[in-house]
Every structure is written in C-alpha cells, then in structure tokens.
Amino acid sequence: MSQQQQQNITTNNATTTTVNSKSFDEYIAKDVTSNRTHESRQMIIKEYKKIGHGAFGTVVQAYLTPDNSSWYGPFAIKKVPAQTEYKSRELDILRITDHPNIVRLEYYYTHTPPDARNTLFLYLAMECLPETLQLEIHRYTSNSLQLPLKHIKLYTYQIARGMLYLHSLGICHRDIKPSNILVDPQNGILKICDFGSAKKLEPHQPSISYICSRFYRAPELIIGCTQYTTQIDIWGLGCVMGEMLIGHAIFQGEEPLLQLREIAKLLGPPDKKFIFFSNPAYDGPLYSKPLFTGKSNSKFEKYFGHAGVDGVDLLMKVLRYEPERRLSPRRIMAHPFFDELRQELYFFPRGNSQPKHLPELFNFSHYELQVIGPELINSILPHND
Ligand SMILES: Nc1ncnc2c1ncn2[C@@H]1O[C@H](COP(=O)(O)OP(=O)(O)OP(=O)(O)O)[C@@H](O)[C@H]1O
Which residues does the UniProt record annotate as the domain Protein kinase (predicted)? Predict the structure, then answer.
C-alpha cells in the first residue's frame, strides 16, 4: 500500500489504525448528535466496509471526524429509512439504554444520500463488535466442533443479564436470535443488538403477534397471542442456548404453523388450556397427539445431555409452553449452571492456548442490584470461600 493510500486514524480508544482510504465512502452530516453529551455538530463520515445487512437496512463500519484531524471509531452504523411521521422506536430505546450487555449507541443523525431520491435516512452509530453469535456458532459447526461449555455459559449468562435490564424497563426485544447477538470471542463479551422490533410492552395493551424470526418464536406467538409478555424473549434465550449446544437451530419449522410441530417433538403436545388462553380464536393444527413415546425429560437429555445435569435442567425450565412458568432473567442468572463462572476466573478464547480473564460479569449497578433483589443476590455473586 502506498503512502498516499494510507491514512492514520486515531480511534476513541486513542489507538492509531491504518486504513485503506480507497475503500472509503465519505459524506458530511450536518447534525450528528452525541448520545453521551447530547450535543449536535457537523461531522464527516468515512464509511470503511459493509459489515451486515438485514430486512430494514445496511450496517457499515465507519469513522467520524469533526475536523479531519481527530477521528472517532470504528462504529457500526446502521442506516434505516427515517420515519418522519412517528419517531423511531429503535432510536428511542437505544437512547435510554445503558448496560454492559446492550449495544451502545454513540451518535445518531439523519442524512439523504445522493442516490436516495430525496429519501431521508436515520443513521445509528453504535459501538462495533467483531462478530455475531451466529458466525461464532458457525465457525465451530463448520469444523465439526462443539462450542466449549464454558463459552456457552458465558454467553447465556450475559444474554440473561442484558434481558434482566431490558425487561426491568418493560422493553421486550422481540427478535432474539444468534444474528442479533454480538460477541467478541477474544474477551468473551456479549451484547444484544438490533432493537428494530423492540417495544415497551404496556400491561393489557395488545401487540402484534407476527413478530420474531420463525425458529425463535415462542409458542404463544405462533398461536397468535397478542397479550404476550417479555417472557417471549426468554423462549428466544432457550433457543439460542440450545443452538449453541447442538450447533444448529433447535426448532426448524419449514413454515410458520409447522414451527409448533417442531416444538411438540421436544416438549410433547401443548396443553389445550395453554392454547385457549393464548388465543381463544386459534384454529390451526393442535398437535395434541404425542409425537414420541416416553418422557420429554429423556428427549432433553438425549439432545442436550452434554450440557450436564444443570444445563439440561436450565433448558427445561426455560423452554416451557406457559410463559409464566419460564424462569425469569434473574433466576436464570442464579441457576447452578453458571456456578463455574462464579468459581473460576479464566477461560480459553477460541484459538488461544493461554487462559484469559473472564469479562466483568458481576459488576452490577445500584439499579441492577435493586432489580435482582436481596433474596437472589447471594446466589448470583461469586463466593469468596
Ligand atoms: N454494533 C455492531 N457491531 C458489529 N456488527 C453489527 C453491529 N450491529 C449490527 N451489526 C451487523 O449487522 C447485521 C444486521 O444488523 P441488524 O440486525 O441491526 O439489522 P436489521 O436490518 O434489523 O437485520 P435483521 O433483519 O437481520 O434483523 C447484524 O447481524 C451484524 O452482523
């Protein structure tokens, strides 16, 4: 690379990164608002590379500069069509959330790209993590390997901690799946991302049931329930944990209604009462005849036995038809499956023969301590004996 092609960039971590300026797409945004100081100013945005795209927009890695000399980033910038009549829920939620396991919004702005025929876009500049959990799972399965159990514990615990925070604010993510979970496999940090489907659920207010990606949809959503709770995310957590254990999605329905059949293959047939209370008008297939002989416990043991007794126990307490019987996030965090994280401080990141310190898992804020409550805190915190 020639001297002219190179450009030194000082990131907000005060490190210097050399990037190939040829691949940059550059533009000026007039009102870039900092989510830390709430001040707005003009900035130059240099897009570096595309790192993801989904149903609602694209995500690029980019750097920001107010003066062409100090550079901030890299950020993951998500571009979505700006909703002019009503405000973006994703922006509203990201602006108020502040938690180690929730992706952090650093800046936001609107801008009309030259090729967009006057369409206004909203840009969300978030902290950038190197991978999604989907990619991390794929790395292991494509090499016929299993994700180490300690990594599964580390990731599941952090999903539950992120959910504890979100749910305490009444926010339901509504699209929990491995591609919406960001990880840094080298330090074990996990953050939940993509709040494009998230909503603050109000008691007794209906919400649409056609939400969440098919393989991760809770049974009450499949049945058409519109008065669901944040416990739909707990179902998603169970599906993600199961996927980390077996290397592929655990319930792979070929079409929406067949999804319930896949669930019945593991849990047994759903109870009539559960169907009625989820949606009295449901007229889809019931799968009321057992699809296997024997007990559901032995099915769990057969598929997830390598998670150990505690792992199977946790999964069975999370993947339950009745939402109110699924464990809450704080009870998940207190489950003995995570005792290893409370006892041993180190883990081996992928590809490392040297152990590394686990990320901070118990640095609870005053708010989190209140949400956890005095009766559970001792089961969650590590013991010094
Ligand atoms: N903060 C981030 N750091 C790194 N990569 C990210 C970040 N945010 C998003 N991505 C990447 O971009 C992808 C799409 O982001 P996101 O899920 O927010 O968009 P979406 O349009 O809602 O997608 P989908 O329709 O798949 O839910 C993610 O799966 C991930 O690969």
Answer: 45-338
